[in-house]
Amino acid sequence: MTAKANFLRTSATLILGSLLATQAFAHGDVTPQKMDVSALPKLGEEWVEENPYVGNEDALKIGESAYAQNCARCHGLDAVSGGIAPDLRYLEPGIEGDEWFVYRVRNGAVRNGVPYMPKMADYLSQETLWSIRAWLVSKHVEQ
Ligand code: HEC
C-alpha cells in the first residue's frame, strides 16, 4: 500500500474509532481523551511485556498529558496521590512494575463487586498507556 493510502486508511479508522468511542461513553463515567501518539513507534494490538518507551522524550510528554486527563482525578495531580487511589510514583521501575501496571490498566480493580478503577485499556491505546508508564517511571520515588 502507498504511504498516502495507508495514511487515509489510518485517518478513516481514527475517525470511526472516535465516533464509536463517543457513543460508547455517552452513558459511562469514563471520558477518555484521545491522544496523538503518531510520534511514537507503533505497538499493535498484542500487549508487549516491557515498557518500550523508556527514555523516549515524546512518550514522556504524551504520558504526562494523558495521565493528567485520565488518571489524575483518582491518582492525584502530577502523580502525587491525595489518598483516593494508590500513589503511582511508588510503582517499581523495571519489568515487575511494568507487569503490574499492565495487569491493572487491563483489568481495572473491583472490590466487593464495586468497580474502583475502570479497565483503562478499554479506552486508551497501548501506546498511550505505555507513555503514561514511562512518565510515571520518570517520577518514581522510593516509598
Ligand atoms: C476512578 C478512579 C481511577 C481512575 C480514573 C484510575 N485509577 Fe488506577 N486505581 C484506582 C484505585 C482505587 C486503585 C486501587 C485498586 C485496589 O488496590 O483495589 C488503582 C490502582 C492502580 C494501579 C495499581 C497500583 C498499586 O500500587 O498497586 C495502577 C498501576 C493504576 N491504578 C494505574 C492507573 C492509570 C495508569 C490510570 C489512568 C490511565 C488509572 N489508574 C486511572 C482508581 C483509579
UniProtKB/TrEMBL annotation:
Residues 1-26 form the signal peptide. GO terms for molecular function: electron transfer activity; heme binding; metal ion binding. InterPro entries: c550_proteobact (IPR030991), Cyt_c-like_dom (IPR009056), Cyt_c-like_dom_sf (IPR036909). The keyword Signal applies. Residues 58-140 form the Cytochrome c domain. Keywords: Heme, Iron, Metal-binding, Signal. This is Cytochrome c-550 PedF.
